[in-house]
Specification:
5-stranded mixed β-barrel; about 170 residues; globular; binds zinc ion; two-stranded antiparallel ribbon; OB fold (Dihydrolipoamide Acetyltransferase, E2P)
Length: about 170
Amino acid sequence: MASPTTTPSETRAPESPPPAAKTPEKRPFLLDFFPLETPDQTRLHRFYERLREGRLSTTRCPRDGELHWPPRTACPSCRTEELEWVDLPESGHVYAFSAVLVGAPLGMEAEVPFAVGLVDLDGVPLRLFGRIEGRPWTELRIGEPVRTEAYDIGDGRMFYRFRTSG
Ligand SMILES: [Zn+2]
């Protein structure tokens, strides 16, 4: 008969390794704001490869000409997977914005307050959401011109954001 005070789950190795240091690379997957970017992790890896070259891009369907955002692995209209990558305009205008004052995503707690918003890119029918850098959020204005930029989030991964010209 087993002892009621001893179960296998209570058995521990004499020396367990120290807990891992908390670094941005150790974020729990489900709480990581930024997606995984390598070819073995996403079929949209070319989006990030192009960001590394400073090019914000998306997919377009060569059959019906539909421009997608976010980029797709298949056209939502005709379902073809033979899509082409196209660079997006580098300029746009703020459609709406807000500020993150509390409750920032994991790893961004020290960066509040910061602005996020919707930006209409010039010349294409796309409205993108993203962080807006530059002037303080209290000085942002609707309709303000911004430019897109690619940046390294700090652990080798790339993402995009907007920056005010002023
Ligand atoms: Zn299509």
